[in-house]
Design goal:
five-stranded mixed beta sheet, 7 helices, elongated
Amino acid sequence: KSDLTGSIASANIETVKESANTSIAQSLQGSLPGLNVGQVDMAGEDPFISVRGQNSLSGSQAPLIVLDGVIYYGSIIDLNPNDIKSIDLLKDASSTAIYGSRSANGVIIITTRKGKSIGKPVFNFSSSYSFQSPAHYLKGMSREEYINKNYDVDWKNGFLAPDYTQKNPNYDPTSVWSRANVYDGYLNGVNFDWWKVITQKPSTQDYTISMQENTERTSSFLSAGYTDQDGLMLNDYYNRWTTRINYDSKI
């Protein structure tokens, strides 16, 4: 902050860790002013990120990501949220003064954890298991509802004149079907719930183990993590293995 005079926003990393998200970007939704994080509709998908809205009609909108002082060109979902120590957002011209034209869309500075105070090695293990459910379920028509729909579509023939409130007993609902498979399903008495077959119960499980050690001359941080996410649709899943080693030494 000593090099900047403009707007800086810092995330509350403890609040971010409490949210059961596979991506650190999703955990930042609504937590940093000026940072816009879009929604995802697939497991393991990177959300759209922009700083203070869109800046170009055809150019890139992605902000510059700096990870431990190095420009990071990878996917942000590949980072384990449990390894992150702090997240800072640079939003104005001062970020461009430091990082050049590449930071025209803002800068996200991510710092990962390192060894703590001098003493014995410290081991940490964290795990979480969460469930998800859609806000609205798609409810398909049953066999009877699908047949009755044809009466409403072809109401002039499906109901009796003059008031068209009583069904025509001589009306054939199959007369408006043009596909042979629909007609065959009608004759075979098919009543199938496609929504139930192509969906599953979404869930996410996450496990991380880490070791921190700090001596007079060396500082080390080692971590390994595993994430398994199942989306709403069948065969929509995401698996991630992460490892990180931060080692500093005074030679």
